[in-house]
Amino acid sequence: MNYDIEMCWDDTVGVWCAMCDNIPLALESHSFDALIARVKIAATEILALNGEKNEDVRLCFRATHWECIA
Predict the structure, then answer these.
(1) CA geometry: angle at 45 spanning 42 and 49, to 5°?
(2) CATH of the domain at 40
(3) Quick check: 46 and 59 in contact, CB under 8 A?
(4) What span, in angstroms and rounded, lies between the C-alpha atoms of 16 and 33?
(5) What residue numbers bound the domain in which 23 lies?
(6) Other CB atoms within 10 Å distance of the CB of residue 32
(7) Phi then psi dihedrals of residue 8, to 5 deg
(8) Is residue 70 part of a domain?
(9) What's the pLDDT score for residue 62?
(10) Which residue among 26, 46, 54, 69 sits deepest, i.e. has the most Cβ atoms within 10 Å of its Cβ?
(11) What pLDDT, in 10s, does the model give residues 13-51?
């Protein structure tokens, strides 16, 4: 099963946010790499609790970074 993880930069509070309604998952971190690591752990745990087999799970990370420059 494939899951799309939407990641975006929240300039207001200075954190990366990760969301996936299909897992369900919502996390944040100041570091992009740390957030990916947290998502992998949390997704595995949540899916296991929901009875999903983890051997066929693929996570696709899609990142967006918007910033005001004016």
Answers:
(1) 135
(2) 3.30.2390.10
(3) no
(4) 10
(5) 2-64
(6) 14
(7) -145, 155
(8) no
(9) 96
(10) 46
(11) 999 999 999 999 999 999 999 999 999 999 999 999 988
